[in-house]
Structures are given as structure tokens and as C-alpha cells.
Amino acid sequence: MKNFTGKSFLKLLDFTPEEIGDLLKLSAELKEKKKKGIPHRLCEGKSIALVFEKTSTRTRCAFEVAAADLGMHPVYLDPSGSQIGKKESIADTARVLGRMFDGIEYRGFGQELVEELSAYAGVPVWNGLTNEYHPTQILADFLTIQEYFGSLAGKKLVYMGDARYNMGNSLVVGCAKMGMHFVACAPEKYFPNSELIAQCQEIAKETGAVLEFNTDPISAVKGAHVIYTDVWVSMGEPDEVWEERIRELSPYRVDSKLMAAAGEQCRFMHCLPAFHDLKTTIGKQINEKFGIDCMEVTDQVFESAQSIVFDEAENRMHTIKAVMAATLAD
Q: What are the residue numbers of the active site?
């Protein structure tokens, strides 16, 4: 395994296929130890800062439990718990936290923020999500796919919906790196930007990956190993954005007909949270405003035997643990 010590984990574009494979292998090894109750306190006595400008259930829990398993002390800083970017610049915050902590996680807004944090911190920085990339999620997704299908190369993953932001960007990069067959399926305006597509096409020439961009759901999912989707709208967007996304993306909702078109081998994945029922405050509000009982996926698919979303969610912890262990362990 390559030496990752001291290296930040900001986006998958920074890593070779072999390095990504090494992190997945370490993730599987640490997961097995966790399941067998074998201690793996590889970072005993270290402390890490978890800087969350955007809150999250899975990311926070994954980092905190993984840190504890590795023998570390995590300190959580929510949007009100630090002065980052408000009273104190990113660079100044980075230099303060870097003197006190052995590693820093950042979950927030622009990719340039986590890049600047890494440039000044002097310790490893891990991207827990930015507007542009979500690399720890992709490691969890790929570990899950490996567990179900044995390997990544040649496996077909279809991303349904808005592929312009962190999940679509990260999946096209990850699939290109690992020699997979990636399909973005949505109206053309929702495809990743042309510059990133061109960059990934160059990567695909070296890895044998296939990258497609399709507007027809039924043809897109034929033979897919995985159909993947995410929420259509970020919280706080105005009603007109919700109306537009619901109107334009409803034909790309993952339902039983789409899963059947893919085939029995296909599994459903989602990075969560998902709007699949009316059991949440937001779900009820969507129903009242727009008259729908789900958005990107139906409850029937979400709760089906083909859905592996909770295996995927658990794997956030194991892959995040591998990233921290690889970059911090002596």
C-alpha cells in the first residue's frame, strides 16, 4: 500500500486508481476487524477537528465513531462553533487548528475553501462534502459495489437526476478512475460541466471506463448493476426551483418500472437522506405544496430487496476510517 501519511483527501481527481484501490482494501480490512471485535487503535492519542458549516447525520457519525475506533479524540465544530470565514479567514483558521489538531475534516460550501484549508493547515484535511465534490461518499459507494458484485471494473452505474454538483461530479470522476461504465441520465442541462467531462474522458482512455450521457431513462438503465440517485433540490431553495426540478426530473424518478428495465441484477443506491415517503417534515411540506408523495425515488423501490442504501450508509464509517488511518497513522 502506498504511503498516504500527511496527505489530504480533497477530491478523487488527486488520486490514482491504484491509490483509490488501496483505500478500499484498507476499508474492507478495517470493516472486518470492526465486525470481529478486533481493536484497531491505529491513531492512539491523536485529536481531530470536525468543521461542519453544513450539518449531516452520516458524515458526523461516521467521523466520530471512526475516530473513536482509531483511538482518537474528535472535536465537533458546528456552524456556530467556529469563526471560520466570518471573523477569521480560512487561512488563519487553518493555521490555528493545524497547531492544535492532527487532522481536520471540513464539510461546507465551495471546494476552494477546503483546498485553502489544506494549503495552510500543515496537517491532513479531509473533504466531508463541498458544493463540487463528495469523495468520502464515493469510497463508501465503491466499497458497497465491491461487496455486492466482487469488483468495480466494467460495472455499470447509472446516475438519475441532477448530475451537476457534488454527487454527479464525484461519481463520474470515480467511475472514470476505476474503469467503470458511468451513465448520467437527465435532461441535458443537468449533466456535469463540459470541462469535467473532458477531463474524465481523458482518464477513461487510460482505464477503459465508459462514460455516457443519456436523456432516456429506459435505455439508460438497461443492464445496469447500480441505479443511483440523490435529492433534486437543496434545502433553502425557493419554491420556483422546487417546481422546476419536480417538473423536469419527475420522468427520472427511480420506480419499479425503471428497476425492472435494468434487470434483476440491479441494485438501488442513494447517499441519503431520501424523499421517498411522507414521514418527515420536509416530505409532508412537499406533499402539501406540490401534491406528490415522493421525489427522486418511490417508497416501493427504497424499501425493496434491491435497495442497498443502508449497507452503503454504514460503509461511510469504514471508508472514512480508512482515509483517516492512512493519512494519520505513523
A: 107, 134, 137, 230, 271, 316
